[in-house]
Amino acid sequence: MRVSRSVSRVVALVTFCFIAVETGCISKEPEGIAPAKPAKTTVKFDFYHKPLPEIPLPNNLATRFDKSSPTKRRLNASMLAPTELEKRVRRRIDELDGWGVFQPITIPFTGPLDVESILKGHRDADYQLNNDVVYLINVDKKSQKFGEFVALDVGNGNYPVVVEDIQGYWKNDPRGWTLSVMFEETDEDKNKNGRLDEGEDSDADGMLDVPNYLPGKNPAAEDLAGRADALMTFYEKATNTLIVRPMVPLLERTTYAVVVMRRLLDQDGLPVGSPFPYINHEAQTEELAGLKSALSAQGQSVGDVAFAFTFTTQTIQSSWKAVREGLYGHGVQRHIGKDYPAELSGFEVLRDKSFEAFKDITNPYIVYTEDVIDAMSLIATAFLGASEGSTEKEVLLDAYRYIDYQVVTSYVSPQLFERYDENGDYLPLDAQSWPENLTSTPVSVRPETVYVHLVVPRKEVSARGQNKPVPVVLLGHGYTGARFDAAQLGPYIARHGMAVASIDCVSHGISLDQGEVDTASQILGIFGLKPYLDAVTTRGRALDWNNDAKPDSGGDFWTSYLFHTRDVVRQCSLDYMQLARILRSFDGNRTWNFDVNGDGQNELAGDFDADGVVDIGGDAPIYITGGSLGGIMSVVTAAVEPHIKATAPIAGGGGLTDVGNRSLQGGVREAVILRVMGPLFVGTQGPGATEMSLETIIPDVNDDRTVAIGTAAVVKAGDTFVVENLNNGEVGCGVVWKDESDTLRVRASVESDVGDAIQLSFYGGGALVLGSERCELKAGQQPDQTITTFGVDAKFQGILYPRGHKLIALAEGLGLRRANPELRRFLSIGQVVLDAADPAVFAPNLALDPIEYAVGHNGQPEKTGAHALVITTVGDMNVPAGTGVSIGRAAGLIEYKAVDERYGTPANQKLIDTGMVEAVHTLKRYMDPGGEGVHIDVDNFSEGTDPWGTDIPRLDPPLRLGADGVDPLGGKSAAIFPYPRPSGQHGFDFPGAMRDKGVQACLEKCAASGDVAGDGCTCSEQEFFDIGSFVMNVIGQFFRSEGKELSFDLCHSRDDCGDVPPAPAPREIGM
Questions:
Q1: CB neighbourhood size of 897 (10 A)
Q2: Could you say which of 51, 190, 726, 847 is the most buried, measured as most Cβ atoms within 10 Å of its Cβ?
Q3: Apex CA 283: angle with CA 279 and CA 286, to 5°?
Q4: Is the preceding peptide bond at 679 cis, omega within 30 degrees of 0?
Q5: Mean per-residue pLDDT for 97-121?
Q6: For the sheet containing 255-261, what is the strand order?
Q7: What is the 3-state secondary structure (H, E, C) of 580-630?
Q8: Are residues 855 and 778 part of one domain?
Q9: What number is the average pLDDT over the span 710-739?
Q10: 774 contacts 721 by C-beta, under 8 angstroms
Q11: Under a CB-based contact definition with an 8 Å cutoff, are residues 505 and 477 in contact?
Q12: What is the C-alpha separation between 768 and 777, in angstroms, rounded?
């Protein structure tokens, strides 16, 4: 049942009056900081707007007083919502003690704005403040940065919205040609009369859609670059909303003022103004007390202010203080450390003692390289794509000879969210999240076993040769990946004398189908290593979410369940934190509770091969790296864990909603965007067909599923399609249209919970009230046909819905349209929730602003501090490259104010100008000789020796940020941009693979010139830049030097820098 508008008004009014009472604004003579000047167009304050009040956000007027909150505030979210899905989110939002530190700031107005006045104030490459139309100022007198102006992106290009796979948001999308999921590009005003007329509303949203383009811009549909340049991300025409973003994250628990200046003009060229008698709401006068002095310090006057409002940010870093200090037995969460000691819990058998070669071994828990290298040769070909005779395979096997042994061990890690209800069923995902009051209330903790794949280098090439423990590199895997990455990438780290330890992040684990298991079992069985296979494949954390008896690795990790997504990231960092604590406990004195070699004596903790010497841990450095999700975890974990000396995140991203709304990553769109847009109901009728096929498209964990519903007859273009949720009264609608192939198409969605009864109806012609945004039907309209049951047998997630079964929503969703303000609003609020796990938010804590812990290892105070090598691959759209730039900028590695003398503009602006931030090669900012879109190589590490040579543009001089400087910790930190291929790539190829590509391209070119065998080109003798070898050796040197050395010499590609010793000689099998 729909909530009436009167109820909505009562709720909004109660909220408003509560704010007024709480702030004391009921005094006899409330005042603001200055009187407002009259204005035709004002900042909009509509508390009655549905589904949410339309006011500037974030805003302390939308909070409530709570004395138990560290900020004395909680966000005040209405509990009225049509679905349990939305109610759960609202309940959790209501618990947040402040707004986001990296969220968009949105300011709606009562009328259209003069866009040119915005551009005039906000197109400085170095973000000068002299003529801005909006400011963001720290007005918290308790803050050390009181009075600081925070630079804002106002459509400057730091946060692009253009997607690469334009048509990738499911079939029959009426906005399937738009460049983004957030902003409109369709001009529905066919007769140019400025009004919505019958037949113009092509997406049935009740609005006269116009392209959200800059004034005077009208690019052709095929001009993708022109459309991208015209698209405004800072102003939404449909709602007259100004949208700005902080260039770097704000401080936690701090009050900020957003100040709109009278330099901002409306469409008539007049200054905008305040909706109140004063330039602020009187409830915020006290918070704005320092505004006059802050403005004056920048040469600005309060008399030039149109309107100002305040917001307070939420607790973020302080939650980590409580949790980590608790892990070390201190503070409100001290029970965590007491209940979860720093110790391993077990070892997995890796070698079959019944196998002839292993019959005499004493330690079955380790597998030496000589035991596994022949098996890995076969595994590399069968599973890793390294073909026989390739350089890639040769390099891998050579690197394996630097490994002494591998171990699979485990520990119990404290989990701060529950998985199951009292009946043993999964809790809703948003309920599977950390509580908000971590700084004041002891958290309930449950145990979970976390398995570790450990790779240890030979003594001959590491500190173990001097009886010292070696450094450990924590290796994070990618989304849906697993800890087996240690066996793939560990050899390249072992070459530099370091061990690798990899865990499965929350809900992850290796996932093989039965055919793959059989193949791997046959290969490893030949060498007596079936226990190794079991340890790798059956000891993960992945769960079965869709009843197919197969674990879904990462199935619940990146989702639209915002609080759960936030907290699986935080939980994975806590798991790494516990592992670091365990490594530090290997002090050379303590023994563990295991006798790994069966001699009747427990070994020293950390002595895995039982030779009497600790192998890893103790006071040896700890580093962290990883790709994709592993890159994200490498930033967050290094920023909160003091024991980590340096980090090298690869292809990670910050601004998590910026990742979600643009990502090509398999599973992200499905689990995030489809849940927001769906459940989708689509109809398709091909040329000559007499019936329209009806289907529903829904998420299936982190994939999508299209399930047939039935058919509809006698449908024609222009008909109206209505989807009604019979449980909650919500309605979605669409208009049938005919595409260029004479196929009839329609699509609509509706906000639903799983199992809600659904009714599909078709009406002849335009049946909707013109201008209705809620699919209201004209009086007297009767459907031509109505579908309330499945017309065919349907099956989803193991459940059969036979023909004739009541039609229901097979998945829950929010039912939001593409290119609609509601979708943009959801993503904005989403960032509020995700900020507490966002890599960009924590990037300053790497070195610029360390987190200080009162108690840590050995009871001593500790603080964070990690050298950072932020690696963002050019053209990445899985984790969009612009989000990697966001991390670098937040960490202080990419300058956005000071001019880089090499280019006459700041480095950040150069990254925008070259398309590095945008990262969409299909826009064809640059083209190769064949006219294909390519990216520019901004770092030119190959110096033109990669397979593409002169066919691609290269920045001269190359950027190479951080190559010459010294970071705040006295070492090296940098943001680099390797070039994996012209069209862009997520991450980079394994060592040797690019050289193989270069040789193959050479041979093909040679053959095209008439030398079929390629003999005359000596391709195999040519030097080709190898990106995998280059990056892994750069990381190896960076870590090996404890973050003090960073070289981009080409010798890293050739593997001849002279700093890696030769591989040790092989030993006998079965030691």
A1: 14
A2: 847
A3: 85
A4: yes
A5: 98
A6: 134-138, 255-261, 305-312
A7: HHHHHCCCCCCECCCCCCCCCCCCECCCCCCCCCCCECCCCCEEEEEECHH
A8: no
A9: 97
A10: no
A11: yes
A12: 4
Going by C-alpha positions, the residue among 434, 511, 486, 498 that lies closest to residue 630 is: 486
**151-172 per-residue burial string, b: 16 or more CB within 10 A, e: under 16:** bbbbbbbbbbbbbbebeebbeb
Q: Tokens standing for 123? A: 């197109």
DSSP conformation letters of 745-782: EEEEE--B-TT-BEEEEEESS--BPTT-TT-PBPTT--
Q: Which neighbouring-strand residues pair with 259?
A: 135, 308
Residue with tokens 């003690």: 97
Q: Do 799 and 922 share a domain, yes or no?
A: no
* Rounded (to 5) percent helix, strand, coil in the chain: 25, 20, 55
One-letter identity of residue 499: A
Q: Considering the domain boundaries, does residue 167 fall inside one?
A: no
Q: Residue 492 falls within a domain, yes or no?
A: yes
All residues at 6 or more sequence positions from 128 whose CB lies less than 8 Å from its CB, including other chains: none
Give the separation between CA 418 and CA 608, rounded to whole angstroms: 33
Task: Give yes or no: residues 597 and 642 share one domain.
Answer: no
What tens digit of pLDDT does each residue of 856-883 get?
999 999 999 999 999 999 999 999 999 9
What is the DSSP code string of 518-530?
Answer: HHHHHHHHHTT-H
- Residue 312 and residue 264: Cα distance in Å, rounded? 24
Cα-Cα-Cα-Cα dihedral sign, residues 557, 560, 563, 569:
positive
If we measure between CA atoms, which residue out of 371, 378, 288, 265 comes closest to residue 59?
A: 288
H helix runs in 795-873, sequence order: 821-834, 839-842
Burial class of residue 332, CB neighbours in 10 A (0-12, 13-18, 19+): middle
Select from 856, 842, 869, 844 the least CA-distant residue to 1040. 869
pLDDT band at 77 (very low <50, low <70, confident <90, very high): confident
Does 178 map to a domain? no
Rg from Cα positions in the chain: 30
Residue 80 has pLDDT above 90, yes or no: no
**537-541, long-range: CB < 8 A, 24+ apart:** 537/510, 537/512, 539/348, 539/408, 539/410, 539/451, 539/509, 540/451, 540/482, 540/483, 540/504, 540/508, 540/509, 540/510, 540/511, 541/448, 541/450, 541/451, 541/504, 541/505, 541/506, 541/507, 541/508, 541/509
Interstrand relation of 622-627 and 499-503 (parallel, antiparallel or unpaired): unpaired
Region 459-481: what's the mean pLDDT? 98
Please tell me the total count of domains within the chain.
Answer: 3
How far is it, in rounded angstroms, from Cα 73 to Cα 94? 10
Torsion angles phi and psi, residue 331, rounded to 5: 85, -165
Q: What is the pLDDT of residues 110-164, one digit of tens each?
A: 999 999 999 999 999 999 999 999 999 999 999 999 999 999 999 999 999 999 9
User: Quick one: pLDDT at residue 24?
Assistant: 42
Judgement on whether residues 629 and 744 belong to the same structural domain of the protein: no
pLDDT at residue 1012 in the model: 60
Beta strands, E only, 973-1067 = 974-976
Q: Do both 847 and 747 map to the same domain?
A: no
Distance between CA 406 and CA 414 in Å, rounded? 25
Write the burial class of residue 1050 (CB in 10 Å: 0-12 exposed, 13-18 middle, 19+ buried). middle
Among 17, 21, 33, 71, residue whose Cα is nearest residue 285: 33
Largest CA distance in the chain: 94
For residue 1010, the model assigns a pLDDT of 78
Alpha carbon distance 158, 917 (integer Å):
7
Residues 536-559 as b/e (b if ≥16 CB within 10 A, e otherwise) read bbebbbbbebbeeeebbbbbbbbb
Whole-number percent of the chain with pLDDT over 90: 91
DSSP category for residue 315:
P
pLDDT value of residue 938 = 99
Tokens of residue 838, six digits = 């966002």
Whether residues 631 and 578 share a domain: the answer is: no
| Full residue range of the structural domain in which residue 744 is found | 678-815
Specify whether 855 is located in the same domain as 919. yes
User: Looking at this protein, which amino acid is placed at residue 982?
Assistant: P
Instruction: Indicate whether 810 and 890 sit together in one domain.
Output: no
Q: Is 425 exposed, middle or buried, given 0-12, 13-18 or 19+ CB atoms closer than 10 A?
A: exposed
